C-alpha cells in the first residue's frame, strides 16, 4: 500500500524547525509504504546511506562523513549539486531524522513501524524550501511528490529482494 499526501505549511517534521524559512516557498511531502521485511531489516537497509543511489532518483552519491553528517551529490536539472546533511535523530528500528546544513533547505524524518514480525510501515516526511526558480517550478509541477513516491517504491523493491545464496536476507 502506498499513500501520497501533501501537507500544509504547519505540518512540519521536527527536524525542519531549526531552519529559518523566511518567505520562501515551502512544500511538505509525506509518503507511506509497507514492506515485507521485519523492522530491523528495513531500518538497517535505510541506514546504508551509500546505497541511496540504488533507489533514489537523482541521487548520484552519498558519503557518510562521520556518525552524524552525510555529503550528498544530486542531479538538479542539468547540473549536479552538493550539500551536507546532519542526522538530528537516530533511534534504531524506529526513526531517522535529518536537516540540510548547506545547499537546498530541506529536512525530514523516516519512521519505521512494525506490522507484526515480518512487515514494516515506512513513513517519509520531507520538508523542502526550493532555492532556485527551476526547483520552484519542479516543486509546483508535482515532480518532487512523484519522485519521493517512486523512491519509496524502489526502496520496497530493494529491501524485499533476496540476495542470491541466502535463504531470506533482503541484501
Automatic annotation (TrEMBL):
InterPro entries: COQ10_START (IPR005031), ORF3 (IPR047137), START-like_dom_sf (IPR023393)
Domain of life from the UniProt record: Bacteria
Pfam family, one: Polyketide_cyc
Domain called Coenzyme Q-binding protein COQ10 START: residue spans: 35-155
Protein name (database record): Coenzyme Q-binding protein COQ10 START domain-containing protein
Organism classification: Bacteria, Bacillati, Actinomycetota, Actinomycetes, Mycobacteriales
Amino acid at each position: 500500500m502506498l499513500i501520497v499526501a501533501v501537507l500544509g505549511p504547519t505540518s512540519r517534521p521536527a527536524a525542519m524547525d531549526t531552519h529559518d524559512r523566511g518567505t520562501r516557498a515551502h512544500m511538505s511531502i509525506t509518503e507511506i509504504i509497507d514492506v515485507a521485511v521485519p523492522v530491523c531489516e528495513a531500518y538497517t537497509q535505510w541506514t546504508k546511506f551509500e546505497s541511496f543511489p540504488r533507489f533514489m532518483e537523482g541521487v548520484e552519491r552519498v558519503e557518510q562523513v562521520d556518525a552524524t553528517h552525510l555529503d550528498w551529490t544530486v542531479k538538479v536539472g542539468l547540473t549536479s549539486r552538493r550539500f551536507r546533511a546532519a542526522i538530528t535523530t537516530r533511534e534504531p528500528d524506529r526513526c531517522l531524522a535529518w536537516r540540510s546544513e548547506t545547499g537546498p533547505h530541506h529536512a525530514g524524518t523516516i519512521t519505521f513501524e512494525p506490522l507484526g514480525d515480518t512487515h514494516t510501515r515506512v513513513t517519509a516526511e520531507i520538508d523542502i524550501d526550493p532555492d532556485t526558480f527551476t526547483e520552484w517550478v519542479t516543486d509546483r509541477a508535482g515532480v518532487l511528490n512523484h519522485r519521493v513516491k517512486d523512491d519509496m517504491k524502489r526502496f520496497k523493491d530493494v529491501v524485499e529482494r533476496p540476495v542470491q545464496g541466502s535463504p531470506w536476507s533482503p541484501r
